[in-house]
Amino acid sequence: RMSVRQASAHPVSEFMGTSIIVIVLWAGGFIILGGKSTMDASLFIYYLVMLYNIINPLKDLSKAYYNIPIGLGCWERVDKILSATNPITELPQPHRLDTFDHQIEFRHVDFSYTEGRPVLKDINITLPKGHTVALVGQSGSGKSTLVDLLPRFHDVCGGEILVDGTDIRHCSLSDLRHLIGNVNQEAILFNDTFFNNIAFGVEGATRQQVEEAARIANAHDFIMETPDGYDTIVGDRGCLLSGGQRQRISIARAILKNPPILILDEATSALDTESERLVQEALERLMQSRTTIAIAHRLSTIRNADEICVMLEGSIIERGTHADLLAQGGYYKKLNDMQAL
Ligand code: ADP
Ligand code: MG
Is any atom of ligand 1 closer than 6 Å to the C-beta of 119? Predict the structure, then answer.
């Protein structure tokens, strides 16, 4: 309603302004030319100039009157976001996590997004430092949800997650997230330059370090092909890039951050076979000496994992090494046989 009024304000005020001038000119001319008044022509012109000057600010006033409610409407929406309460809270005196030394443990973890619809049921995983655990399973079985619990994007509904024996809910959030590098199914990119997107989370990264990381992630070449190189803007959520390019940017970010714990959620799913091979090499280099949770559709990429957990509808139904699981002849073997085709 405000917009309709605003749109009509301009022609209406224009029309009224002109009408006033017409009336004043007509009446003034009539009075002066009639010679009956004490007002002479120069005074009348002076008066007209004043009138012109007053009409314009009056019109602006009407514009302001319409802009204020529109601004208020926007403010309400922005305020809703700014004043939203974050359910993930920190203790007043959180436990500091400067290094990661021993292991990550998921202990009887339950989780649901909405009451009554459990997404994860009684998950138990122990991941010693330097090991790799892989999660496989149908889409929708809760793999992404499981790895999102570790950096506390959500809090567990039951059980606990321990890093070096401390419940992550008692740890400093920024310390915890500093330990973790994340390459997600959906790359989280900002409407900013390649440089800033890769350097995100690493203070004082130099151009050389960023380029080095991009080279390892096989992203340097396509970045250099863009008009402004590393200063090119990637668009909202990286919408100006292809899925594979987005993923390589977030891999470069993880490489630059160099964290002890790595979460790879289908990190190579959006790549073609050729770039997948290149990125896979980069990832394998990255995974060495690191503690990794990897989710993969293609089993070839995780066959060397120390433990593979097969998930179905929120539970781990099979676990073991690649060879163990093949020997068991269960769901994993079925998946493996299908992919062998
Ligand atoms: P996967 O990664 O194994 O494909 P997800 O962890 O993404 O599975 O999803 C597991 C289940 O949780 C799905 O049934 C999905 O519909 C649901 N889910 C995922 N994210 C959300 C969310 N933000 N809110 C509500 N439900 C969700
Ligand atoms: Mg997923």
Answer: yes
10 Å Cβ neighbour count for 3?
A: 9
The environment of the single-atom ion ligand 2, i.e. residues with CB closer than 5 A, is 144, 185
Distance 140 CA to ligand 2 centre (A): 7
CB-based burial, 184-193: b 16+ in 10 Å, e otherwise = bbebebeeeb
SS3 for 185-202 is: CCCCCCCCEHHHHHHCCC
Predicted TM-score (pTM) of this structure: 0.75
pLDDT tens-digit map of 230-287: 888 888 887 888 777 888 888 888 888 888 999 988 877 767 777 777 777 777 777 8
Instruction: Report d(CA 152, CA 168) in Å as an integer.
Output: 8
Say how far apart CA 102 and CA 128 lie, in whole Å. 6
pLDDT in tens, 297-313: 777 778 888 999 999 99
